[in-house]
Specification:
This protein has 155 residues and is mainly alpha-helical. 68% of the residues lie in helices and 4% in strands.
Length: 155
Amino acid sequence: MNPAELSSLLTETTASITEILVEAEHHFSENPDDFVAKDYGVLWRVTNCYSLLFKNSGCEKRDDLEKLWASYFSESSIRDAVEELLLVEGKWDEFLLTVDEFMEKKMCSENEHTVNEKQIASLSLTRIDDNTMSTVKQITNNNKYSLFVFLRHFA
């Protein structure tokens, strides 16, 4: 691979990642809850960008790619392309940190909500063996001192 080809490949990768990042930032800024719930998968497309970069450059891992561009670093086009890629990777990391912080704050705020006795009593439960529905109030015969342990599975 010659310097012009590598420069072009790095520039194309940077442009693709930038496009995905701009789209993700836009969706996140419009509705962070919706982005986290539905659109988070758009971030996976960056993996394809790197996959193509490695395939087209003949590299198997990041170290190989860095050695390749280091071998042409005397070329200004390579230096510029590498700098742009590193800048977009930094922006990408910042965006992911923003999303992580949002998710952490959301989880903490959801865990701070208190639930009153009436809300608990009106919770609907489904029996596993026959799929019949009952409320907590029906199961406990309105005895507020009954103890229940609810197990929750997070996928």
